[in-house]
Amino acid sequence: MSGHVKNVKNMTAKSVYEYINSMRSDLNRMEAKGIVDSSFINKIDTLDSELTGMKQFWINQKAVSVRSAFVFHTAMHNAKLVLGKMKERFKNVDETGDNPAVACDSLLVMPIISEVYQKTAQAAEEKQSLDPFLPNEMLKLISALRTTAKLVSLLPALHEELRETDKNQLRKTAVELDKKFVASNLLNDV
Description:
This protein is mainly α. Helices cover 77% and strands 0% of the residues. It has one domain.
């Protein structure tokens, strides 16, 4: 992976990966000290912004199949859901007595988020030469992320997921994916 995929804050894929590693180091320090640093919320927001950019990239991507684009879009969506729940738990740490448990729980999902991002960035760079097995690997990673996040209370409940879904954005995404699907079918008919 050469790191040329640019996102919202113009971080390269490599620098996002390094940023995630620095977040993991911060979480390790919090766990060791037994106290949560509330400034970590800013780091969650920065990573969330980068994932939003990558999620948007897959909505607009026309160089890969609709199925592949949807899988990578879904991966970013799920990583963002986990980050959102993580942020909520960090914000409410004083009221919930979740200190340092939220740091320990976050440490369990961050390696998976890192791998999800790394493979999604790899796919973004490969596009037409995309490894045909990568989307299936990603589906397994999404499942592992959701399962792990659920076990450590970092996955929103279904009603929370639905409440936080932007219906207009969902409709727009569905329309874009439908356009891609129709276009690819027309090309296959030629």
